[in-house]
Automatic annotation (TrEMBL):
Organism of origin: Spirilliplanes yamanashiensis
Keyword Signal: no
Gene3D superfamilies, alphabetized: Tetratricopeptide repeat domain
UniProt keyword annotations, A-Z: TPR repeat
Taxon lineage: Bacteria, Bacillati, Actinomycetota, Actinomycetes, Micromonosporales
Record-given protein name: Tetratricopeptide repeat protein
Signal peptide region: none
Length: 612
């Protein structure tokens, strides 16, 4: 397929053409190494540019093949790898050349590394050993998602063409049929994938052939045939427990969860520590009964088995888009309705907002920062007074003048604010991943982290930062508070937990003024319980006590953090059953005073953040 970037006037090709101009000057001076470096850079920028290949051929002709100009080493430049691949093919070693192009495609599948005539030439089928091509194809498949991203499919099609031409010469080569099926499946050629996999399994029955056939059937929606093929793979090799996990995952994805769990149980009976089976089993058990304990055990397993056979995403999949398990949830304050109206220009500048009762200081300060000319009148401060810490030892972060709150701490250092700006993000894969990411705040002074809770830095000038600043500044403030509290977890980690400064600071924040900071501090404690089994009983006790306090206060007045604290409780390892019942009652909204966030369905912004 013609690359539209090859047009003479395409400005995207100018950097490559500038490199080629330098290469021609070096050729004129017979400075072959400099010429080769410029050609390699041009190929990296425009892999299928005809002028680059013409100059590469000239270099080969002038230097006896040119291979010495493009040496391989463990950290070779990708343009050098690709240039050497083309030269190997020209020297009569197309399989070796194709292997280098495939390595480049594995590094960057969306680049058109193989979009050159020799890769798609039907004559290549006679020149490449089918077994070698099968291994190249299998290696390429390990680097490409199933299915491949839309922008990766056209650049990868030449490899499928090479497989097709080689199979025309070797129609019963089982390994190439299976590997070709795997590639075809990734590129959306599902019927071709089924055809090749069936031919491969018929030509040489084996475990691998049946696995390829099972995957092809699964992509084609033929689940019964897929399971039958995978069962035959088990018959070939009953000790390959990864196939058990694949069968379980396929069954679960199609509503047969009970049967799927039987397959994970069979695998774990053979080897209780086999990572694929453990990950799949915990994920499916969580889907089956919703018990958080399955995810906590999975996190423990991952911590004790960091060298699994391959990367697993089961924990992240279960936590994805779940409040606190994978993201900062929206706040429940009524005042945020006004904030949304300000952002959408539905509320005129100079308007007055009347609140029936005082709300969280972080919410009101966020509104004031976005709309400083908007006046807010508060009709009542019901009891218990939201301006007072919930316990005498609660840390004071806010100072009140009537119903107006101001930070009680001096601003943090610019360096601390900038470090937080770099790390804060409203989504994460799962709590242990958030804990690991927050280690970047370990060097930030605890006083600065506390100050950042009431002096949030401006959103960064990044794609995510700009989206939050424009559409949901409250979410940005909340996530800075979350990451500041996660940073406190990495403060003086040499101290025993029970008597540590990090525990004392977080518990003081939990029992301070009812605010978004309460949620952030609770999340930090919950996160520590995920990564440190020894602290789980203590954290569960603190969370249960704070939840009970929310429930008591909620019988007298609105509690904007109630829904979120209940979600935090359900995310807490080893929380007792009575506390879980209280949390579920709050989430279900059985009491009118308990306030849930206004946005219960995923917003466009949240979906956008999750994709990134």
């Amino acid at each position: 397929m013609e690359d539209p970037r090859r047009s003479a006037g395409d400005p995207a090709l100018e950097p490559a053409r500038a490199e080629l101009a330098e290469a021609r000057r070096a050729v004129a001076d017979e400075d072959w190494r400099h010429a080769a470096a410029h050609v390699a850079t041009a190929l990296a920028a425009a892999p299928a540019l005809p002028e680059a290949h013409e100059l590469l051929a000239l270099l080969a002709a002038r230097t006896g093949g040119g291979l010495d100009l493009f040496p391989l080493d463990p950290h070779a430049f990708i343009g050098t790898v690709v240039a050497r691949g083309h030269l190997l093919a020209a020297a009569g070693m197309p399989a070796e050349g194709l292997a280098l192009l495939a390595a480049a495609s594995g590094h960057d599948p969306a680049a058109d590394w193989a979009g050159v005539p020799w890769v798609s030439d039907p004559a290549l089928g006679d020149r490449v050993d089918p077994g070698t091509l099968a291994r190249i194809t299998m290696q390429l498949c390990t680097a490409v998602a199933d299915p491949a991203a839309e922008d990766e499919i056209p650049p990868l099609r030449p490899y499928l063409t090479a497989v097709r031409h080689t199979l025309a010469v070797n129609p019963r080569h089982a390994l190439l049929l299976g590997a070709g099926s795997a590639l075809a499946r990734r590129l959306g050629e599902v019927r071709l994938a089924v055809e090749w996999a069936k031919r491969g399994a018929a030509a040489e029955p084996s475990k691998l052939a049946e696995i390829w056939l099972g995957y092809a059937y699964r992509s084609d929606g033929r689940i019964r045939d897929s399971i039958a093929a995978l069962r035959r793979a088990v018959d070939h090799d009953p000790d390959d427990l990864s196939v058990y996990a694949d069968i379980a995952g396929t069954l679960a994805d199609h509503g047969r969860l009970t049967e799927a769990l039987r397959w994970t149980d069979r695998a774990l009976e053979r080897d209780p520590t086999f990572d694929c089976a453990v990950h799949t089993a915990h994920r499916l058990r969580y889907r089956h009964d919703g018990d958080l304990a399955h995810l906590v055990r999975l996190a423990d397993f991952q911590r004790h088995h960091p060298d699994d056979t391959h990367q697993h995403t089961d924990l992240a999949e279960c936590c994805s888009d779940q409040p606190w398990l994978g993201r900062v949830p929206a706040a429940g304050d009524v005042v945020l309705d006004a904030l949304r109206q300000v952002l959408s220009s539905d509320l005129a500048v100079g308007s007055q907002l009347r609140l029936s009762s005082l709300e969280a200081p972080s919410a009101l300060r966020t509104l004031a920062s976005v709309a400083p000319e908007l006046s807010v009148a508060v009709d009542d401060v019901p009891t218990p007074d939201i301006r007072e810490p919930r316990r005498a030892d609660g840390r004071t972060l806010w100072r009140y003048d009537g119903t107006s709150a101001a930070p009680a701490l001096a601003p943090p250092s610019p360096a601390a604010a900038e470090r937080l700006r770099e790390l804060a993000h409203p989504v994460w894969p799962h709590p242990p991943a958030a804990y690991d990411a927050a280690i970047g705040l370990a060097a930030v002074d605890a006083g600065d982290l506390l100050a950042l809770l009431v002096h949030p830095p401006a959103a960064p000038d990044t794609e995510v930062g700009r989206a939050l600043a424009e559409h949901d500044p409250a979410l940005w403030v909340r996530c800075t508070q979350v990451w500041a509290c996660l940073g406190l977890l990495h403060h003086r980690t040499d101290e025993p937990w029970e008597t540590s400064a990090r525990r004392r600071l977080l518990v003081e924040l939990v029992w301070g003024i009812e605010d978004w900071v309460t949620e952030a501090a609770l999340f930090a404690l919950v996160t520590n319980a995920w990564v440190e089994p020894a602290v789980r009983a203590d954290v569960a006790r603190v969370v249960a006590e704070r939840l009970a306090d929310v429930a008591r206060v909620g019988t007298h007045r609105p509690v904007s953090i109630a829904w979120s604290v209940a979600q935090l409780a359900l995310a807490t390892p080893d929380l007792d059953a009575p506390a879980r019942d209280v949390a579920r009652t709050i989430i279900e909204g059985a009491e009118l005073h308990w306030v849930a966030p206004r946005q219960r369905r995923p917003s466009k912004l949240r979906r956008w953040l999750r994709r990134r």
